[in-house]
Amino acid sequence: xxxxxxxxxxxxxxxxxxxxxxxxxxxxxxxxxxxxxxxxxxxxxxxxxxxxxxxxxxxx
Length: 60
Hints:
Shape: elongated
Oligomer: single chain
Number of helices: 3
Number of domains: 1
């Protein structure tokens, strides 16, 4: 992925943050919301292949 692509993605995410989080959070505090949500989404994606096995193990 090129540096230009990464910049485009970052600008896209911050643009969504401006639209969605405006009036809910001070602009400088967006990172306090965006970073944890990004980490949680990444963790969910990484654990997705084993999710059903873990749920089955827990229920038995």
